[in-house]
Amino acid sequence: MNGAWLLLDLVLVPMILAAALCAVGARAQFTGIVFYIVYGLLLALAWVRLGAENVALAEAAIGAGLTGVLLLGALARLPAAAPAEPGADGSPGTALRLAAAILCAALALGLGAAVLALPEPAPGLADVAAAHLPATGLGNPVTAVLLVWRGYDTLLEVVVLLLALLGVWSLTPDPLWGGVPGPRHRTRPEGVLVFLGRVLPPAGLLVGAHVFWAGADRPGGAFQAGTILAAVWLLAIMAGLTDAPAVRGLALRLVLVGGPAVFLGVGLAGLATAGAFLGYPPDFVKPLVVLVEAALTLSIAVTLGLLVAGAPERPPR
Amino acid sequence: MTDAATLYGLCGAALVGIGLYGLIVQAPLLRKILAFNLIGSGVFLLLGAIAERAAPGRGDPVPHALIITGIVVALSATALAVALLLRLAGATGRSTLSPEPPPPAPGERNGG
Amino acid sequence: MPWVVMAVALPFAGMLLALPLGRHAHRLAWAVLPSGLAVSVLLVVQVWRGGETVAYAIGGFAPPLGIALRADGLSALLVLTTALVVCATGLFALAEFRPPSAEREARASVLFWPLLFALWGALNAAFLGGDLFNLYVALELLTLAAVPLVSLEGKPETFAAALRYLLFALLGSVLYLVGVALLYGAYGTLDIALLAGAARSEPAAWAAGALMTAGLLAKTALFPLHLWLPPAHAGAPAAASAVLSGLVVKASFYLLVRLWFDALPAVAHPEAATLLAALGTAAILFGSVLALRQERLKLAVAYSTMAQLGYLFLMFPLTGGPTEAQPWSAGAWNGGILHAISHAFAKSAMFLAAGLILEAVGHDRIAGLGGIGRALPMTVFAFGLAGLSLMGLPPSGGFIAKWLLVTTALASGQWWWAVPMLAGGLLAAGYVFRVLNPALAGADEPVALRRPVPRRRQAIPLVLALLSVLLGLLPLGPYRLLWVGRPTAAEEGLG
Fold it and tell me: Which ranges does the record mark as transmembrane (chain A) (predicted)?
């Protein structure tokens, strides 16, 4: 068994490195991005191999999926760059490249040496977490870390996500403020995208709801579920079945701040009910976590979708 | 099992190096953004290896949660960077941070 | 009431409310600014009265599984400084970021307020956080709030500046994160206090310390990683420049201080401290000379930030030096912190003053500002007062700070660190008087104002400048606050 695993590792790790090298080194930017997406999927395999299914879901959905869509979308909308000689577009010459290569190789080697020098037996919190898990009523320790023990991290993180969207919106040209992100996608009744756009949303909603619900006890959770819902929504937009919402809508803004606001509100209520900010009264841990996750899933889905859609490009209707 | 953790840890270290090289050397901003994501995922892999070392087979849930947080933060940053790049290109026609805008090739529209 | 929690939660609540409020967002400032200031004052009182570090386990879960917030004298003082600067810039911005009409909302006036509140929350989260990974998230929050502020006015040249800033900041935080991962791998905790007890001088800790330091230096714009700072800070709207230059760069410096003095003093090496101070010295000299050569006022002020940040790094080799000549122990440590605080007030005052001048005259070319002192006396006076603190002239906070650093350098026989500090003061006098001289001289044709500036707006930079001067006149009291929970390495030195 161990031998088979090792064989997988020995194939997977070189493939990951090769995909990374191709993503950086590909001559055409498009090829580079495609290699980056392949790299993300290989990485998701590595996460499964490392027993981190929660991370594998997040990596495949966010790392490879949404990031890949973002990069491809940007490439399509950038003005085609004139093929430039090395150095003409501000890229460094050979000497600088060599110096950078030496610096980066030294960094990687130093980091590798530090990894090899990590102490044995390795310290960690797996046992502490396992001991505290029953008190939460949750079955998935990663969800317990994200929503209970280190909920403060997650609260700040959803604020990061919202803040990034505000940053993207801040780049709207003034006359278009309040308008609709992205180009209008037209429906072509016979198009494959429309077919997918009709078939996938119901399935995606089901999968998303399952991933959210399962997250309490099995791999999954608000971020993974939110990403799946966002992907389905984006697909429907790209198929022309629906349009992105105008950013001045009050309902939209309430949905965006709803998740973080519910989380912050439950956290502040914890001051009274559990004697601590972001604390939960002992018998209500799981219901409150599910409530927070439900609110977060919706906000995360909408925020992620709009992050990928970008700054408004059409005036408000 | 510890061997696997070490292998993926070293892989993460190499990814950080590869990504940093891309970030320093490549001029097109989209490539820099991609390279930044490579560094990020290298760090996550390093954390994943540390989780595997700490609890072989099941993994330490704390680093796993940190990685998920990190992936979301990296996406947020990437989205902002991409939006800035598109706005920069729209306003000036540039998609690099070179000090001088490249001379417009014949027939190419002038940056407005 | 746990004021540590409220100091973080309140600004974020303001941010979440501001977005749905849309064109009314600016009205929220009248609620968030005073209550945030009140919470900060209450936190300072709590730390002062208690006389020890206030620790708060979030959710009731103690580290290492949970996250702790900690407020010692240093954090409390920085939280208060932040509140004062944010409140002043918020009041200043009320005139600028309000809707153009009652019905319509405008992009910049809707987004400025949630961004400012988020920035405030992120700063407090950074100053109060006790967990290294949580501090990473706080740093990212800070970056994502700060970068959009740079290009908020939509000027084409600011997009490149904002993007360069973002790339440097992201590289900085990812390097910081590598170090966090290594420290967790080596010691199984992310809590600063627990790490302090566990960390030993060994390869993983060296690598972690080096990478985290490099990352934080990129975010603090220490020479030679300063390239992003001048265009970003000079291109932003004045209210944003004030918080970016006065506060945001201090957060990453503060984390560097926490890292070495609180978490890893056992790992610190004297040579590393020397290297940091050498880079700081280069920053002082290069930054000052570049500030002298700028033709535009806001750029000159931005380069001055690069120079003034350099002083902060001299505290690394100088802590632990003999302090018989001074009324307080840990002179260099106090000096570094005091410099960070007085620069926060002085620099935000300068940027707001420069913003008023730009607004009133329509340009900020230094050569075209002759006689501006007669048109905007209060603003130019505020600029001059803030300059006093930057030069390190008595009586000002900058004077006390530099005096503490220089006397420690001389008393410990490290006179060579005193030379660039004194030279930096002279150069600062150069770039401040280069603006003040023509401004105060009776020009043949005094500049014409495009529009008048109300006195109550002019008063805001003046109050900030007065605060930076008052720091030098205060009795010993406030410095005793700095002693609360002060790490032993602050007295004994690093390495």
Answer: 28-48, 55-76, 96-118, 155-172, 192-216, 222-242, 254-278, 290-311
B76: domain CATH number is 1.10.287
The backbone torsions φ and ψ at residue B82, rounded to the nearest 5 degrees and listed phi first, read -65, -40
C119 to chain A: closest CA residue: A163
B101 inside domain: no
Q: A17, B18: Cβ pair inside 8 Å?
A: yes
For C175-191, write each residue's pLDDT tens digit: 999 999 999 999 999 99
Q: Across the strands, what pairs with C68?
A: C57
Crossing angle of helices C331-361 and C377-391, rounded to 10°: 150
Q: Does residue B97 form part of some domain?
A: no
In the predicted model, what is the mean pLDDT of chain C?
Answer: 93
Query: How confident is the model over C320-343, as a mean pLDDT?
Result: 82
Better-predicted residue by pLDDT, C237 or A224: C237
Chain C partners of A174 at a C-beta cutoff of 8 Å? 106-107, 154
Residue-range definition of the domain harbouring residue C470: 269-495
Number of domains in chain C: 1
B65 → closest Cβ in A67, A101, A145: A145
CB contact under 8 A, C65 and A128: yes
pLDDT tens for residues A222-276?
A: 888 999 999 989 888 888 888 899 998 999 999 999 999 999 999 999 999 999 9
Query: B112 by DSSP, 3-state: which?
Result: coil
Band (pLDDT 50/70/90 cuts) for residue A81 is: low
Please indicate if any CB of chain B lies within 8 Å of the CB of A53: no
State the virtual CA torsion across C217, C152, B26, A157 in degrees, nearest 10: 60
Which residues in chain A touch residue C141, judged by CB atoms under 8 angstroms apart? 156, 159-160, 163
Residue C102 lies in a domain: no
Query: Which residues, including other chains, have CB under 8 Å from residue C30's CB and lie 6 or more apart?
Result: none
Alpha-carbon gap, residue A53 to A44, rounded angstroms: 9
Residue A86 has pLDDT above 70, yes or no: no
Q: Which of A6, A9, A11, A50 to mutate to test the interface with B (most CBs of B within 10 A)?
A: A50
Domains in chain B: how many in total? 1
Per-residue pLDDT, B1:
43
Q: Is B43 on the interface with A (CB under 8 A)?
A: no
User: By the 8 A CB rule, do C113 and C97 touch?
Assistant: yes
Is residue B110 domain-resident? no
- For A244, the token pair is 């992105």
Report chain A residues whose CB lies below 8 A from the CB of C133. 153
Contact C159 B88 (CB under 8 A): yes
Q: Which tokens belong to A269?
A: 């209520």
A residues 242..261 contacting C (CB < 8 A): 248, 250, 253-254, 256-257, 260-261
Q: Do the domain assignments include residue C84?
A: no
> What is the pLDDT of chain A when averaged over all its residues?
88
B98 falls within a domain = no
Confidence (pLDDT) at C476: 62
Whether the upstream peptide bond of residue A119 has omega within 30° of 0, thus cis, is: no
Q: Would the pTM count as exceeding 0.90? A: yes
Query: Which of helix, strand or coil describes residue C188?
Result: coil
Establish whether the linkage from the previous residue to A281 is cis, with ω within 30° of 0. no
How many angstroms separate the CA atoms of C132 and C435, rounded? Answer: 42
3-state secondary structure of C389: helix
Residue C485 counted as domain residue: yes
Produce one character per residue of A251-273: b if its CB has 16 or more CB atoms within 10 Å, e if not.
ebbebbbbbbbbbbebbbbbbee
- Whether residue C453 lies within 8 A of chain B, CB to CB, comes out as no
Domain that holds residue B79: 2-92
Q: Kindly identify which residue of chain A lies nearest to residue C107, measuring between CA atoms.
A: A177
Strands (E), A137-256: 180-181
Q: What share of chain C is helix, strand, coil (3-state, %, to 5)?
A: 75, 5, 25
